[in-house]
Write a structure and sequence with these properties.
The structure is a single chain. This protein is an alpha+beta fold and 113 residues long. The protein contains four helices and three strands, in the order αβααββα. It has a three-stranded antiparallel β-sheet. A hairpin with a 5-residue loop joins strand 2 and strand 3. The protein is elongated and about 60 Å long. The N terminus is likely disordered.
Amino acid sequence: MAKKQTMDHAQLLVLSLLAGEDMYGYQMIVELSRRSDHTFEMKEGTLYPVLHGLEREGLVEAYQQEAPTGRVRKYYHLTRRGAAVLKEEAQVWQTYSGAVNAVLRACPALGLA
């Protein structure tokens, strides 16, 4: 039996950003950096392929809207299916990261115990 492939962490991060509000690309880049204390500095060349893949999978939808500056921006919206996948994949990530942290805490050389 093939093991289930888990979602790429960049996809998970993008979905989590869109869970709070619809955003346009540059806004996502700035917000991800801010929320992660600059740990995640995603580039446009990474973000847009992720967004397009999520859109193909029906997890996000795109629409255009005029900004207060008059510029038309492409916003992304988390779909109902995207919210369900986010919830499931966030649980998978929590389980995985919890297991990694448990192993690291038990490592005497790290002094985390």
